[in-house]
Each structure stands twice: as C-alpha cells, then as structure tokens.
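Sample 3 of the quickstart, ligand adenosine monophosphate:
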Amino acid sequence: MDVIEPGSTIGILGGGQLGRMLAMAAAQLGLRTHIFAPQADSVAAEVAARFTQTDWHDTAALAAFAAGCAVVTYEFENVPVAPLGALPAGKLAPGTRALEVAQDRLAEKRFVEQLGGRPAPYAAVSSAAELEAALAAVGTPGILKTRRDGYDGKGQWRIGSAADCAGIAIPPSGLVYEGMVEFAAEFSVILVRGRGGEIRFWDSAHNQHERGILVRSELPAPDIVARQVEPARALARKVADALDYVGVLTLEFFATAEGAPMDGPVDGPVDGPVFNEMAPRVHNSGHWTIEGALTSQFENHIRAVAGLPLGDTATLAPRVVMDNLIGADALDLARHLADARAHLHLYGKAAARPGRKMGHVTRVGEA
Ligand code: AMP
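Result:
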C-alpha cells in the first residue's frame, strides 16, 4: 500500500474509547475516520467524520464502509473474523491472523509457545472430566478463564480447590485453566511495527490491577521489570514479525523472581517473564504515551496503518503515572483537576457503572 494522502479516511472497527483516541490522533494528521460498530452510543463516533452502526455480520455494510476508506483498522480484538472476508485484500491492518490468535486464549498461548514464549502452566477445558484433569495436572490455586470474549477480569474464576468449580458452566467455546503465577510485578510491552517491518518499542510501564482491571501504569518500572524487558521485547518482536503485523501490538507479562522485592534492586538470578496475554491493538497501559512520550501509541498506530514514517517513542520525563478513572470516581472533576499539571481524559460515556473505564489522568514528570 502507498502512503495515504491527507484528507483520506481511515476506517475503525469498534466504537469505544480506544477508537475515540485513535480518531483524535488521525485528525491531528489531517485524516478523517469512519467508525463501524454495533452499539448506538459510540464514544468514538462522537469525534469521527462518519459512523456506521450495524451488526458485525452485516457484510454489505462492511463492504460499503471499506470502499470509502483508504485503510481499515480495529480497536477491539473480538471483532468476528468471518465477515471481514467482505473487505478487499490488503485493506485491513493489522490483518485477520492477529485477530484469530488473540481471540482465543488457547490459540494465543500455543502461538506464543511456538515462538519460544513461556505462558503460565495451562490446560484446555471443554468438559467436566477435562476440568478435573486440568486441576490435577496444573495444580491449585489457579484461574479458570473463558477461551473467548473475556476482558477486564470478566469470564474468570479464581480456583483454590476443586470445590470452587461448582456451578461454573463450560461454554461451547471452552475454558482454559491456568496455574496462579506468583509474580513480583506486571508489565506490558507495547510496540509499533510499520509497513516496512520497522519496529519501535515504548518503555514498559509497571501495571497495577485491582480485581482484574488495570488501575495504574507507572514509569519508570521497578528493577524487577526492567530486568525482564529485553526477553519480553524479543518475544513481542517475534510475534509481530510472525504475523507480519502493521500497527500497535501489546503483550502483557508477569515479572517473576524467587522472593524478589517489588521495589529496589534485584541481585539474584531472574526467572524471565511469563507471558500473560496479547492484544492486537493500542492498549490501556499505553495511554500514558499521549503526554509522556514523543509520539503516542495512537499516533504511531495511525502512522503505521497509513504507511507514514513512525514517530520516536522516547519517554519525555523521568516519571510518568497514568491512573484509570473507573466508575463513579470519574465524576469528581474538582479532585482530578486540582493538580494543575494533571492531564484529564474523559471518554464521554454516559453511565458511570461500577468497573467501567470512564477516563484516565496522566501526570508527567512528578517527583
Ligand atoms: P487477564 O484478563 O488474563 O489479563 O487477567 C487479568 C488480571 O488477572 C491480570 O492482569 C492479573 O493481575 C490477574 N491474572 C490473570 N491470570 C493470572 C495468573 N495465571 N496468575 C496470576 N494472576 C493472574
């Protein structure tokens, strides 16, 4: 594909806050966006030039949408793959293979293992007998996860013993049982890969989760993370190259080390990162890059899919902290804006339901 001209339209599959931030980055580059999503109340469509609201399986609408776009990308990894056959060859970036791999936790783990990555010990579960066998093989404690459609800790059950499995229905697409990783910290590797295969990485933040939801990403990451970033990047690079990926790709990891402290120097041998999951898209743990990096993940994703040169990913300050605003916490504007140096982002969602990501605040350069 050639470089797309200013004024061209980029199609975005998915209408959430990631699409909203991609659309704003595209606008800065003189590009228009067209959102394609099933929900009527799309916060991405509010800042885009056009909106097609229809079912993912509406192939006639998909074809018409693609005809008006120079390139089509996605902000949501659970877009059904089959209808995307309605798009002309080469229009979609990243491609469908990345979606297929990332939509299925089992396929994802196998794919990453083939490339030398190390997930937590796991077993596939499609029946009660397999569940019993999985607990015996992997051991407890562990986490049972739906293979498909889980996000932000949804579709997950913590299992301390076999009794905790009572009442868990096994969906037709199956489950994966994972051993509980005793991690010192969580981090993500976020990269952008251009059309020519060039890869740039952002610094890896230390990600903190509560009840399966990201609450904070913080730089610099502690030593235990810094020590594991290189092998994690090497794996992420292999994943991106194997998929001939174009755009921003995220891999999430657990940093492990026997008895290692979360903060302070790590003297002993480090175990190496444990792969958790990947997202074929811009990621919540990269929101800090909007103000904290020379080029944000959103801008570089647009640049990559548009065939433009990639921007520098360097971090701009010694310390950057991004806090998610979840549920009603987002409504306390006076508190969020009390710090005149804080960058407040609200996604324009109407209802501040518990557990819902409503916005985030980034602080750059604080002590
Ligand atoms: P996931 O949606 O798979 O990323 O899981 C959400 C969060 O649950 C992760 O970021 C971890 O904090 C926790 N978690 C998931 N899987 C495991 C595991 N195998 N061991 C320990 N913690 C986990």
